[in-house]
Specification:
The chain has 341 residues and is α/β, with parallel strands linked by helices. It is built from 10 helices and 15 strands. It is elongated, with a radius of gyration of 22 Å.
Length: 341
C-alpha cells in the first residue's frame, strides 16, 4: 500500500477536499493499492507528497524528505491567474532547494507527468429524450455568468463588442444588477440556465490546455457553450457540441451565426446530435472510465518505483509561453500570438 500525503487542504478540488471525501478514492482504480491522507505525521512513511500550489506557502514545507519520495507540483488554476496564487513569486526559491524541490507534476496541462482533468471526468451529460420539451424551455438567447470584472483574457472587451450586435444577458458579481440579480456569484438555478440557447463559457485567461468549469456545466445544462479559444476543445469535447469564437473572423460574424441559429431550430438542433436519445453517450477521448483519472494515474506512477526525476526550474516550466492575450477591434478579433495547439 502506497501512502500519499496531501500537504494542503486542497480546497475545491474534486475528489481531494473535505467536501469530496477521499477515503475510497483509489478503490475505483485498477491499481487500488494507494491511500491519500491529510495526516502530515505520516510524511516519513509516504511515497508521495502533493502540494496544492493555490495554497502553497514557502514557510510551510516539510523539514526533511526521503530521496525516494515524490514531491508533486499540483495545480488546477490557469497559468494566467497569478493573482489567485500570490505565492508564485517564491517558486524560484524552491528550485534552489536541493537542485529542485519537485520531481513530479500533476496539473490540467497535457505535458504534465500526471494529466489531471479536474472537471471533465466528473461531468456526464444526460441524454435528451424529449426535444420538443427542451426547446419549450428556451425562451432566451445568450447568457453570460461572470464573477471577475477585469481579466487577463480581456473577455469582457469581447463581450462588449458582441453586445453591439445581439442581446447578451449578463449576470453574476460583475453584472451591475444589484438586488435584482438572480445569480449573485454566478450560481443560478438549473431551470434559469436551461432557459438559454447559448452560454458564454469564456476563460479568465487564455492559456494552453486550460478550460473553465462553466464549459462542462453548460454542456450538462443542455445549452450550447461559446468558447474563447484557449483549450484544446476538439480533444476534450464531442464534435459539434460547442462554438469557438476563433472559427469566426470577426465579432459580427459570430453574432450573425448565433442569431441565425436562434431563428433556425433544425440547425440549432445539430449541436445536440451527440446527446439525443439513441446515440452513444459522450466518452472523453482515451478516458473511458475513472481508472484513467489523474488519481489513478498517480497511483500507478508511484507503484512503478522509478527513480524520482528532478524538475530544475518549475517556474519556467509552468509559466513560459503558456498564455496569450487577445485584442478586440471594432470588427475583427485579433490574436496577439498564434493559436496554441
Amino acid at each position: 500500500m502506497k501512502t500519499i500525503v496531501l500537504w494542503n487542504k486542497f480546497r475545491d478540488v474534486v475528489g481531494a477536499s473535505n467536501d469530496h471525501p477521499i477515503a475510497t478514492l483509489f478503490s475505483r482504480c485498477s491499481v487500488p493499492h494507494c491511500r491519500a491522507i491529510f495526516d502530515r505525521s505520516k510524511l516519513s512513511t509516504s511515497s508521495a507528497v502533493l502540494f496544492h500550489m493555490a495554497e502553497f506557502r514557502l514557510n510551510d514545507l516539510p523539514l526533511s524528505r526521503d530521496p525516494s519520495q515524490h514531491f508533486v507540483f499540483t495545480h488546477f488554476e490557469s497559468v494566467g491567474n497569478r493573482y489567485l496564487v500570490p505565492s508564485h513569486r517564491h517558486w524560484p526559491q524552491l528550485d534552489a532547494l536541493s537542485g529542485g524541490f519537485f520531481n513530479l507534476t500533476m496539473t490540467y496541462r497535457t505535458d504534465s507527468d500526471v494529466y489531471f482533468d479536474a472537471y471533465a471526468m466528473y461531468y456526464r451529460p444526460h441524454l435528451i429524450s424529449n426535444w420538443t420539451a427542451l426547446m419549450a424551455q428556451k425562451e432566451n438567447g445568450v447568457l453570460w455568468l461572470v464573477s471577475h470584472c477585469r481579466t487577463q483574457s480581456h473577455r469582457e472587451d469581447y463581450v462588449g463588442k458582441l453586445s453591439k450586435y445581439l442581446k447578451v444577458d449578463k449576470f453574476g458579481k460583475c453584472s451591475g444588477k444589484g438586488v435584482k440579480n438572480p445569480c449573485v456569484y454566478g450560481q443560478c438555478s438549473d431551470q434559469f440556465r436551461r432557459s438559454y440557447k447559448f452560454q458564454l463559457a469564456f476563460e479568465n485567461s487564455v492559456c494552453r490546455d486550460y478550460t473553465t468549469e462553466k464549459l462542462y456545466r453548460t454542456l450538462n445544462d443542455d445549452v450550447v457553450p461559446v468558447v474563447l479559444g484557449g483549450g484544446n476543445y476538439s480533444a476534450l469535447l464531442p464534435p459539434n457540441s460547442y462554438i469557438n469564437i476563433e472559427d469566426f473572423r470577426s465579432v459580427k460574424h459570430l453574432a450573425d451565426h448565433l442569431i441565425f441559429l436562434m431563428n433556425n431550430e433544425e440547425e440549432y438542433k445539430k449541436y445536440f446530435t451527440w446527446k439525443l436519445e439513441g446515440r452513444n453517450m459522450w466518452q472523453l477521448p482515451d478516458v473511458p472510465d475513472f481508472d484513467h483519472s489523474g488519481w489513478c494515474q498517480l497511483c500507478r506512477r508511484i507503484h512503478e518505483d522509478q527513480p524520482p526525476k528532478t524538475i530544475r526550474d518549475v517556474s519556467d516550466w509552468w509559466f513560459r509561453d503558456q498564455c496569450r492575450k487577445i485584442v478586440v477591434a471594432e470588427q475583427i478579433f485579433e490574436q496577439k500570438h498564434p493559436k496554441l495547439r
